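Example record

The entry below shows one chain as it appears in the dataset: sequence first, then structure tokens.
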Amino acid sequence: MQMRACHSVTLQSLSPVWASRNFRQRQHRHLLPPPNAVALKARRTHSMPPEKVEVFKSMEGWASEWVLPLLKPVEQCWQPQSFVPDSSLPFDEFSEQVKALRQRTKELPDEYFVVLVGDMVTEDALPTYQTMINNLDAVRDESGTSPSPWAVWTRAWTAEENRHGDLLRTYLYLSGRVDMAIVEKTVHYLIGAGMDPGTENNPYLGFVYTSFQERATFVAHGNTARLAKEGGDPVLARICGTIAADEKRHEKAYSRIVEKLLEVDPSGAMMAIGDMMEKKITMPAHLMYDGEDPRLFEHYSAVAQRMGVYTANDYADIVEFLVGRWRLEKVEGLTAEGMRAQDFVCGLAPRIRKLQERAEERARKMNPRGFFFFTNQTPPPPPTNSHLLVASPYPPTNQPTHLARLAAFPPPNPANPRHLPPPRVAASPEPTPRPASPPPPTHPSPPPSNPPPPPPHPRPLLSPPATLFLSSHPRGHGAP
């Protein structure tokens, strides 16, 4: 097994959106195609030498003893219904539970829901992740019901993960805060697009990837739990914390596998770690798309970064954590290539942190661009096919508001209700005439020395993805 030389860390590599940028960056900014329509760079496949298959066969007994016990028996597992209103209750009781849920969520900021939807969409693309693991040589489920411990783990891991998307989707649906039709379409697109983690059907690379990714999802769900608690929704905090605990347990299993590989094949495992770190870990939802915004994952990641849910600094923390977890600095018996990979990986986290400080400084100096709340006055039509994000020219009013989506502005299509302009609010009835005011004084009033300033423009509240999935209804709208 060979690994490309690892010599540099680019500044671009510090954003959680590397993968989506790398293959779309050179496209015309205003005519970006859907992510899955862009040709990806050709990847190596089946890169593990045939003799390495025996390594995993020899580890099957160990996996049964040290990996499978990290799965929970089904009867001891939590299920989504334990966290959401019980629809089997009488209608009035069920309605009260839903109202209580909406009351808890109505004060959570819109940006929080953008991140929560992104988490849910990522979890719901589980078929893609099972497919990826089952494409790894030597550990795939050859029959669909294979008794191999690798196959047993993959099936049971999938079953445990399946609850995460189900629970988040149900909670989002009941909250009334998001447009579930857009969310569901985004999931559909993402599963159809697949993912390219760069694992080359190689279980060495695959288990390094899953170790890192499970740690990343543990961090992200843990942070959404913290933000939900701070925002006044203890139930949602418990949901996200429970999911985070699952991810932590799964991370432990995958990390054990890599640790064992370092024991039985230190150079092969070390080069695999170096290879994945040099290629950079691709986030599983990097091909996220909703039918309109080809940079949707980039926009979602920007909000996650700003809210502290998953940041470039978290990436460096995970690299540092895994270096310590696997005791990479102390691994011995390496070939020359293995030692080069060891030096690269062990020195990577400090370099990432140093470049991250520069990136954050530049980001602070950049002019913000993004989506904004609008009044329900219809804004003037933007240029055809424009992907520019603009602020409303209208001053704030006391009229009811809705969220305007500005990802792209194709010409209105009457056949598609989503392409029609938002409805105007019905005119209020004419007020009762008030008594005539007394006539003004005969002498003119002097002009004010400091005339009042003009009405301010709406303040930008959110940046790019913050209205991507949000419902057009006011917060807390209605009950079932």
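Notes for this example: The chain has 15 helices and two strands. The mean pLDDT is 78.
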